[in-house]
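Deliverable D2.4 — example input (structure tokens):
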């Protein structure tokens, strides 16, 4: 009897701790396979974080993606049963009061709102955070991680303070405060990723932050577009954007034409139109770090060359994207009065953008990094589509664009105009320099995002 009492007493003393340990192991087993990805911006316009979420899901993690749902993400993300998108509320600035007060109210609201969302989400082993924007997200994600046992991974795309400096100037109090905040709070993370070796070195030398370079790579859906799909895309876009419509109808009423292609009524075969215009593509967020007046000035020079008798094709220039300076540049474009060049500024569906890049003849990038340390992902996507690129020069562009190897680098509109003349001088002759660059891209081994992620990021989070 006494032995039974002792056994019962021992069981009552040791069973609760054992159950607690077992519960924690069970809870950690669930948590270890869950990751939260945070974008304090539009998810649909954050491709790298979408790719992180997809790669995590393919590696067996369940993923909660927090961000603003202003535009549609890629279909693959929406169709994954391992990814849940949770929308954040985007508070616009107040219409009254000093700008500092407006900004302060927005930051406080975002901090409280993001913390609430993080605390309501299932606990996770990791919180992946895009920076910028990191104010106030870095501190909020770190604090939530402390409370819930999550490790913070910061993916440095650029510096937020340098982007703010384009608008306010480098010595503005808000810019200096943002720099201090990023430098101090960036050290709170367990793991740091960045997009270039130049940024990795700068983080180490000037910020005391050790980071791992994870270069942007194109997703698998960025590839050359077959001619029949090009035709379908052009016909679809022609319903909304006149630049994609054929200038003349075919003599055969059953033949379907776009500005670039035609489909035979009987065979269904698609061919390029004889004398078609060249398709030049650029993409932008229409912000201060991209000066599109350079492209417009180069296009003016290109048109003057055509008027002077140079054997050059007419151009269709498609500039995709949304952003604060779009209206400003749209007015400039309307003032140009081009005759041989048509400019279109659409916002494309996520599935149409890769198809457009894979159908184009040349890509142009005007991204000048605000810090000089990040690389334009648009060029990565263009290379994935074997699309030759002309890119404006800045500090670390050589880590991506190799002049005269996979593209051309320019410094001003004069250089860009000369490059356009050179590349299109034999268009669409396959012996031209434009097609030589394309063949070079086809022959080069291009690592895709999934494979690169498995080699770089997956071992890091497995080790931590």
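Example output (designed residues):
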């Amino acid at each position: 009897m006494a032995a039974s009492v002792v056994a019962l007493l021992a069981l009552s003393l040791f069973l609760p701790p054992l159950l607690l340990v077992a519960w924690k192991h069970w809870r950690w087993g669930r948590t270890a396979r869950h990751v939260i990805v945070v974008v304090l911006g539009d998810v649909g316009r954050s491709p790298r974080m979408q790719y992180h979420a997809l790669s995590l899901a393919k590696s067996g993690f369940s993923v909660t993606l927090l961000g603003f749902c202003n535009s549609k993400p890629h279909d693959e993300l929406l169709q994954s049963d391992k990814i849940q998108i949770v929308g954040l509320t985007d508070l616009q600035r107040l219409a009254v009061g000093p700008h500092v007060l407006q900004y302060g109210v927005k930051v406080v609201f975002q901090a409280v709102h993001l913390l609430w969302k993080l605390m309501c989400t299932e606990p996770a082993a990791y919180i992946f955070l895009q920076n910028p924007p990191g104010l106030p997200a870095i501190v909020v994600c770190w604090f939530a991680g402390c409370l819930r046992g999550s490790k913070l991974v910061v993916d440095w795309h650029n510096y937020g303070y340098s982007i703010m400096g384009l608008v306010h100037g480098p010595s503005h109090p808000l810019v200096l405060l943002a720099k201090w905040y990023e430098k101090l709070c960036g050290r709170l993370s367990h793991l740091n990723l960045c997009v270039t070796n130049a940024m990795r070195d700068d983080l180490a030398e000037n910020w005391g932050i050790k980071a791992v370079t994870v270069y942007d790579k194109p997703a698998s859906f960025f590839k050359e577009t077959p001619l029949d799909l090009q035709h379908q895309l052009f016909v679809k876009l022609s319903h909304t954007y006149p630049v994609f419509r054929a200038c003349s109808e075919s003599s055969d009423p059953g033949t379907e034409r776009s500005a670039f292609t035609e489909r035979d009524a009987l065979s269904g075969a698609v061919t390029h139109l004889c004398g078609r215009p060249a398709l030049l593509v650029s993409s932008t967020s229409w912000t201060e770090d991209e000066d599109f007046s350079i492209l417009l000035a180069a296009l003016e020079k290109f048109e003057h060359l055509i008027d002077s008798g140079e054997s050059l094709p007419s151009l269709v220039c498609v500039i995709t994207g949304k952003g604060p300076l779009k209206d400003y540049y749209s007015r400039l474009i309307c003032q140009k009065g081009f005759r041989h060049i048509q400019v279109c500024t659409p916002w494309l569906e996520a599935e149409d953008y890769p198809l457009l890049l894979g159908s184009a003849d040349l890509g142009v990038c005007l991204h000048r990094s605000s810090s000089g340390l990040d690389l334009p992902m648009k060029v990565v996507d263009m290379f994935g589509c074997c699309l030759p690129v002309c890119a404006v020069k800045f500090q670390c562009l050589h880590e991506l664009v190799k002049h005269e190897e996979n593209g051309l680098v320019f410094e001003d509109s004069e250089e860009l105009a000369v490059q356009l003349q050179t590349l299109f001088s034999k268009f669409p002759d396959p012996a031209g320099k434009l097609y030589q660059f394309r063949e070079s891209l086809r022959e080069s081994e291009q690592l895709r995002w999934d494979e690169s992620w498995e080699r770089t990021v997956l071992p890091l989070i497995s080790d931590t």
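The CA atoms of residues 156 and 286 lie 21 Å apart.
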